[in-house]
């Protein structure tokens, strides 16, 4: 809070906010944009006079990444999202606004996933949005009937780690890993080996999010 308060001085234009502070910083700004309010997460702060404005540029980066993953085929309506932080909130909001009808959220701590679902309860009233416990049998059941898997968790930064055991990955999935690393994450490598229809890392989202934040 002390660092955020310091942004009100004339020597700053604003700031970028990253993991794990995107949700914590929300009550510290004076006003939130529509995307920041809708997601309950702030990743960019700008200053207007002494007032701090909270933005969510992850939302602006996610949709181009989703469109790039899906390509020319028809946009699916079912997705599984891993994680419950700021990136996951941007992804879920993007899926809601893209017209998805069935989104299941998995997080290691179920209560965080449930808090995310509760946050979106009003905007997702037209669809099925649920948080489920991170058990392999539950994951396998949901992955077998979904079209898109989005990793918005931090698991996978280590190239030897993956949030999903390869045995649970069905063929023909569209897999988007929001992590951006020089090499493909283990999740993407194993999804491709299992016959994924397409895979993508977080580069497109990062590029578009960064451009929006810079602007």
Task: Write the SSE topology.
Blueprint: H1 2-6, E1 14-16, E2 31-32, H2 34-39, E3 44-48, E4 51-55, H3 57-70, E5 78-82, H4 86-97, E6 102-106, H5 110-119, E7 128-132, H6 136-143, E8 148-151, E9 174-177, H7 186-193, E10 198-200, H8 203-214
Parallel strand pairs: 2-4, 5-6, 5-8, 6-7, 8-9, 9-10
Antiparallel strand pairs: 1-3, 3-4
Give structural notes.
35% of the residues lie in helices and 19% in strands. With 215 residues, the protein is an alpha/beta fold. It has a six-stranded parallel sheet, sandwiched between helices. A four-stranded mixed sheet has the order 1-3-4-2. Helix 3 crosses helix 4 and helix 3 runs antiparallel to helix 8. The longest helix is centred in the first third of the chain and has 14 residues. It is globular and about 55 Å long.
Helix % is 25-40%
- State the low-pLDDT regions, or none: none
Order of helices and strands: HEEHEEHEHEHEHEEHEH
Q: What is the 3D form?
A: globular
Q: Helical stretch count?
A: 8
- Tell me, rounded to a whole number, the average pLDDT: 93
State Rg: 17 Å
β-strand amount: 15-25%
Widest sheet, order of strands: 7-6-5-8-9-10
Taking the alpha carbons of the first and last residues, their distance comes to 25 Å
Task: Quickly give the structural class.
Answer: alpha/beta
The description of the largest β-sheet is: 6 strands, parallel
Number of strands: 10
